[in-house]
Amino acid sequence: MSRIVFFLVPGVHLLDLAGPAQVFSTAADFGHPYTLTYVAERPEVPSAQGLPLVARTDWPALGPEDLVVVPGWRTGTLADSPAVADASLKALADHHARGGTVASVCAGAEALGRAGLLKGRRCTTHHDVQDELASRHPGAVVVRDVLFTADDRVITSAGIASGIDLALHLVAGRHGPAVAARVARDMVVYARRNGHEPQSSAMFRHRSHLDDTVHRVQDLIDTRFDQPLPLTGLAAAVGVSERTLTRLFGRATGLTPLRYQQTLRLERAEHLISHGATVDAAARSVGFEDARMLRRLRARRTPVSSVSSAANARSHSPSR
């Protein structure tokens, strides 16, 4: 079980807090055990929007699998940010030193900077205070105009709603993109990645259509892409013929259901390989009987940008 601790500072923005909290809470509803805890230096914390929040004042015991999130707060400049006690900054630094992950939303990056966690690391914050963050923490590598950055278990996001993107990124990293896509769909938000990167997951690229039948089939494939999924069963699950499903799926996504499933398998396998898995182990993990199919798919893989461009062209072509 992973504990998600939100460290609340006076003047906290509600969406900075509620966005990531909703992501992890929804993931917990889908069977991924997260415990959400709210910590502050005082038991009642005023929010920027006027709603008072209640928090505990003692830090729970944390392990390497746990996450601490610092939501941002209302401030004209980072220099005018609310004071954060040395003990709280030490708690942030100590958690990271023990192997844990620390994240921030918006102005929350200032607290990470004060805790010494931004030195030598890529980071970002709200565009209004990016220059000030770089000035106040010269050792930080401030990346502008991205939704979030991740560097050695220090994850920072831009303004307010980008905390949702940050949390979805973490869920995808821990549980796979299918879970992140399901959480995003349940929250009725876009499943986005970093602002300067392409929408590299097929789950995200091929979800911009409005065909509910195809979305339901994609839900089935997303959650069971590592299992055999005959077209007959998929069609029966949504109450249409195989021919109709193939036609609808192709019109909405530019792919057949099988090609979509293979794309998910390939992308998940690439993620596992990039994190140290062998090709054989990755192939088994994503449902291939042996590694030969995975090697063939990798050999003929189309660059993501080309696939995205082709899909976009199809989505804007008139129906025939």
Main beta-sheet annotation: 6 strands, mixed
One letter per element, helices H and strands E, the order comes to EHEEEEHEHEHEEEHHHHHHHHHH
Please state the second-level CATH architecture of the largest domain.
3-Layer(aba) Sandwich
What form results from the Cα inertia axes? elongated
CATH superfamily caption of the largest domain: Class I glutamine amidotransferase (GATase) domain
Extended strand count: 10
CATH topology group of the largest domain: Rossmann fold
Mean pLDDT: 88
Alpha-beta content class: alpha/beta
> What's the arrangement of strands in the largest beta sheet?
2-1-5-6-10-9
How many distinct helices? Answer: 14
Biased composition (Low complexity): 305-320
Protein name: DJ-1/PfpI family protein
Region (Disordered): 300-320
Keywords: Transcription, Transcription regulation
Task: Describe the structure in your own words.
The chain has 14 helices and ten strands. By secondary structure, it is an alpha/beta fold. The protein has two domains: 2-177, 3-Layer(aba) Sandwich (Rossmann fold); 205-315, Arc Repressor Mutant, subunit A, CATH 1.10.10. The strands form three sheets. The chain has a six-stranded mixed sheet with strand order 2-1-5-6-10-9, sandwiched between helices. It has a two-stranded antiparallel ribbon with strand order 3-4. Strands 7-8 form a two-stranded parallel ribbon. α1 (14-29) packs parallel to α5, α1 packs across α6 (177-187) and α5 (162-175) runs antiparallel to α6. The longest helix is centred in the C-terminal third of the chain and has 18 residues, at 257-274. 41% of the residues are buried. Residues 300-320 are annotated as: Disordered. It comes from Streptomyces akebiae.
